[in-house]
ascorbate ferrireductase (transmembrane)
Amino acid sequence: MFHPEIVLIFLIFSIDSLVLTKESCPKDTFCFAGQQINITATCIDNKVISLKWNTTEDKSTVRIWNNGHLHNYVCSVNGTSPDPSYKKFIDYSKKLRNCEIQVTMAQMFMFQKDEISFLDYNKEKSPYFKFSEICKNSTSWEKFWKKLLVKVHAILMLIGWLFFIPSGFLFARFGKKSFENLKILNLPIWFQFHRTFTFLGVSCISISIFCIFFAKNFTWRGTGSDAWYWSQWHTDLGTISTILAVSQPLNSLLRCPPSNSSRQTFNWSHRIIGLLSYTFAVSAVYIAALKYRKTWSEPTLEVILASFPTFLGFSTWILFSVLESKGEYKAVEMTDLPPSSSSSNQSNSQNLYKTSWLFTCIGILLGAATSLSILVASKNND
């Protein structure tokens, strides 16, 4: 029997293995691993030089020697630098601070890309190199595709995590009684909806991972990299949520029959993994909305829209709990006696209310995910 979820798992772990085998120094980057510090120098759009390093000092200075001139760049607790136009990103939440300084080549006196250069930190010098080796002109076509892949990554994640996955959850948690005794292909209709939505969600997430890996040249941007502090958090949370999401189909293959004593263990493990993966994913979305200004433009609105699935999930749980406590929403019980006409009408009425609410929630989820996708797609990040 063909299991598409197995194919997804294989593809995800194949991509992970490719990323892990990449060299520690990204493409078109100069890396200097000294005894005291690790420094990376990259070129952005062939116009801006970005220096990144970690330090435990309250003040540290990295120097670039180029064309007979020394250029000093300071990262300190006070955020001082010789030129206030330099951009600094300092992580104060850890003892080990991530420092990044970006400076345009036009600001660097007598700077020449083709001249021999080296980096200096506390008189520890890097090997010689030329900035022309890392400052390579990217074609407009290449830039276009990379930007497009980043947007496709964001949109697919939004559709997967904010529409398909929550919809599958709603059918699994609240649809059993609404669609009782209704089957498609000899399986309960609620289960078919749950499995279909979840499979589509995991598919979107998996394709999204491919897109961002291609856009970032298969370089790791999470913990242990030289990426921006919030990029590391976003990458870590997104990676964990993706691994947990992809593990759910594998987990479902271990499902035992309802009569088995281990069924409760499976049910709770399946629920906990699902909730954890969703929590990590939404946290990653919040970070992107609040911190990634190149792709996300309306942080407050985007955070509100991203919170819709959580709000609807809690609202549905509270609503059904209240109805159940009032006796208007009762669990269907097996009985040898045929139901009376009044009880049958009441059951049909309850099912109508429940079904209407579930599909209303799914419509709202689709609207929220679509609105977020439009905001991301329409953002001009040139």
Q: What stands out?
A: Helices lie at 4-20, 140-174, 189-215, 229-252, 263-291, 299-306, 308-325, 341-378. Confidence is low (pLDDT under 50) at residues 4-23, 80-95, 329-337. The CA atoms of residues 308 and 364 lie 8 Å apart.
